[in-house]
Design a protein that fits this description.
- Helices cover 73% and strands 0% of the residues.
- By secondary structure, the protein is mainly α.
- Helix 1 packs antiparallel against helix 2 and helix 3 runs antiparallel to helix 4.
- The longest helix has 27 residues.
- The N and C termini lie close together (7 Å).
C-alpha cells in the first residue's frame, strides 16, 4: 500500500501544480463583474496545499494522506456543483467525469487504508 500512496502522491502533486498554474493565469484575466472570483481565490490557495501534501506523501507522511484526500473531495464537490448555472461549467465531458472518478477512487484509497500504515 505504501507504493500506491507514493504513486498517488506524485500524481496529485503534478495535478495540483498544473491546476494552480491555470488558476493563477485565470486570475490575470480578472473581471470585476464575475461572481466566481471568490471561488477562484479559494482554489488558488487549495492547489498549493495539495501540491505540498503530495510531495510529503512521497516522503511517507501520515497527515498528507488526509490533506490530499480533502483536496480530491473538494475538487469533486466543485465539479458536482458545476451542474448548477452559477459556475457556468460543462460537467458532462468525458475528461471531467474520468477525473472525478479518479479523484473519488484516490480519496477512498488514501482515506480508507489501514489505520497505522505509514504512507
Amino acid at each position: 500500500m505504501k507504493t500506491a500512496h507514493q504513486i498517488l502522491g506524485a500524481i496529485w502533486m503534478i495535478i495540483c501544480v498544473y491546476f494552480f498554474a491555470i488558476q493563477v493565469h485565470a486570475m490575470y484575466r480578472f473581471h470585476p463583474d464575475r461572481l466566481g472570483h471568490c471561488i477562484d481565490i479559494f482554489f488558488v490557495f487549495l492547489f498549493p496545499a495539495g501540491a505540498v501534501a503530495g510531495f510529503f506523501l512521497l516522503l511517507r507522511a501520515r497527515w498528507a494522506r488526509i490533506v490530499v484526500s480533502i483536496v480530491a473531495l473538494l475538487i469533486v464537490t466543485a465539479s458536482v456543483m458545476g451542474l448548477f448555472a452559477f459556475f457556468n461549467a460543462q460537467p458532462f465531458s468525458f475528461v471531467g467525469l474520468a477525473f472525478d472518478i479518479f479523484a473519488l477512487v484516490s480519496a477512498g484509497v488514501l482515506l480508507f487504508s489501514r489505520k497505522y500504515a505509514v504512507a
